Amino acid sequence: MQVSAKIEMEKWNGDVMDINETVRRLGLRKCSQLICVYALSGCDTVSYPFGKGKLSALKLPKIDMPGLDQVLGQPSVTHAQLQDTTCTFFLPLYGQKSCTTMNDTRAHLYRCRKKPPPLKKLPPTDANLQLHVLRAHLQMLLWKAADQCDPLVEARNIANFGWNIEGSTITPAVSTAPVAPQALLDVVSCSCTAKGKASSGTRCSCSRAALSYTDYCKCEGGDICCSPFASKHMDIEDDERELHVDNE
Fold first, then answer.
1. For residues 203 and 33, which has the higher predicted lDDT (pLDDT)?
2. What is the DSSP annotation of 60-107?
3. Helix, strand, coil shares, percent, the chain, to 5
4. Which residues contact 51 (CB under 8 A, 6 or more apart)?
5. What band does 137 get if pLDDT is binned at 50, 70 and 90?
6. Looking at the whole model, is its pTM more than 0.85?
7. Each residue of 217-246: pLDDT tens digit?
8. For the chain, what is the mean pLDDT?
């Protein structure tokens, strides 16, 4: 038996939205994905990535992430399935098309900024994203089972879904994995880009520290990098010395 109803919702400013017309315009597929986007971008039981809440999520060009509604909130899906599927939401959320993981996205955004951004503005690491996704997955499992007398057996142990339980206290689990590659944590990176003199002057933080370029410098060690400490320049000098010795 099908039940039809006219559904309207009043906004905070008094405007009334026609939910039936909204569903008709969006289509059933996008509507089924909206609840997944709602959980992933933060709700009562799930946090949201800093600066990337509901408005950012709804500003995506199109909310059509393949399989999002078929994976999130479905029983017996694997962690790998959840991670792969939800990346189709989080990568566009951070404006990344070429990256395939959140760790790559973090490194790319860090490297491309003139000044290193605060850590809270960077995307979550792959490990912390997985915990975030597990919490959203648990909430989706409960929402999808809202018409049942009891929640799914799978959803009863919330410790399996990114939560820590200590006595009567429940807190979100946080990964202890490094927040960045060790090489990034140990080096100074620069923003030099001037052709012919990048990384060569005293204004360059790498050059001042007598460091070669790193993958996180703006020049990325490319042809524009003129650092005297770069391995390519050191190799040239070594070759010249060897040639001089041979001539003697």
1. 33
2. SS----TTHHHHTT-TT--HHHHHHHHHHHHHHHTT-SS--SHHHHHH
3. 45, 5, 50
4. 121
5. very high
6. no
7. 666 555 556 655 554 443 333 333 433 434
8. 76
